[in-house]
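Memo to structure team: turn this sequence into structure tokens by end of day. - J.P.
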Amino acid sequence: MTSLRKLLLCLAILGVFGGCGSAGDSTAAGPSGARVSPLPSVEPGELPADCGPREIEALFTHFLRSVADRNRSGILEDVAPARELNWFGVSKPGGKVLRLESPKEVARYFLGRARAGETWTLQRAQISPVENPPTTGPYARPPRGPGSDDEIVAASFELVLRQKGSQPGKRGGKAGINCETQQFYIWNGG
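Reply from structure team:
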């Protein structure tokens, strides 16, 4: 990669994540500079073609940027349609989990949090393919119809949450991502 391309990539990361990371920075990316990587047990070439680390990082970046910019259509673009969406589970004060079951509910919730002054940035995520997706359970796929045979990956992620007047905090979670549509169809955490 040329020095100019590295500089442009770093500037893009700076704009989205608030920094390019350094050896002494606890929020620094991994050794390659990427914040998304396969789980150590995932062999090269095992991830679906449209769900490599770059594609998944771009999805998280676009979704979280859309939330920060209060861009409803951007949020909806990254959330699976109702027929495929399992749910978004998000933490509420007091440890309760709110279950959002439609794309409109997801957008309304995250826009409300953004209006309250909250922002999220991706610290890191690890991804792995989901072979023979189940029809029941958290990574369930529709038994037939659109999305039923699309390749998917599971992501374990860590976000940094910033709230007005508070120190940044870390939130972890898991997500299911449809590789064909580049959309989240399940989200639990944050």
